[in-house]
LacI family DNA-binding transcriptional regulator (Actinoallomurus spadix), 344 residues
Amino acid sequence: MTSGRRPTLEAVAARAGVGRGTVSRVINGSPKVSPEAREAVLRAIDELGYVPNRAARALVTRRTDTVALFVSESEERVFGEPYFAGIIRGISAGLADTGLQLLLVIAQSEDEHARFERYLTGQHVDGVLLISLHGGDPLPLHLEENGVPTVLGGKPVGVVPVSCVDADNRGGARQAVEHLIGLGRRRIGTITGPQDMQVGVDRLNGYHDALTAAGLTGPIVHGDFSEESGERGMLELLAREPELDAVFAASDPMAVGAMRVLKDRGIPIPRQVAVAGFDDSSTARHTDPPLTSVHQPLEAMGREMARLLVARIRGEELERPVVILDTHLVARESSLGSARSGGR
């Protein structure tokens, strides 16, 4: 347009030869428009350079075209650990063609948590994705009670979510420990994830499953998925079990921390102590030796979370509101080789 005036909805309707309501339905993604009318409206929008007034649209539709990803962890961990990067990449890909904008919310303290809860329940977003919740966090329930569609990444402790995406954490941990047992390891310790998170509980249960089936027991120390807790956990395991010959760490960062302690102590990996982690992050391929780890499809988890949330925002019926994705073991040099023979 050459007049410098912003084209209106009426101008688009006139150019397309349809009513104003038809243009509005096309803009709002309604399926109740014929393909011919939709094509005419889209062509008119393109020709006129029409941009919908989002503020006015929000007043009418009560939609903000924004969804929030709420992470209950520190910024250091969110931006430093591969797990979060993989999930966020998947979510971004899942939202790419939806017209929805993604808002990242990081809250670790109680004050931050309360402040952002008020924001998220105040009609500022169309839906919320939640990952890394601890304990019986009431946020999912509060969001649902306020009419905010919510999808969780990971099953929460003690809460039955409306919709959730998770990996088979128990089965994956069992595979890792069975792998170590199959290599002749008998004194297998574990560094667990937080026990106020279901993922930490499930991975510890998988460790127990494998040892119990083999008639074995092993020392258990608790971590928080961080590299630092892997270091502390490894030091504690060595103090408690001098004859330790393998360790299953419930995350790759903890496995990296454990391997650092073993190297500092001059303990060869895997000849004396084999190590397995969980995540199969990019880091696992570049440790020395490369880390055996359980692969969980992080990007697929993120895409599924986005898909479920978009469906809920649109009011669609969910055939499978809870999705559990398969895991599998990727064996590398940190475990391969018989106990006390071969390897590094």
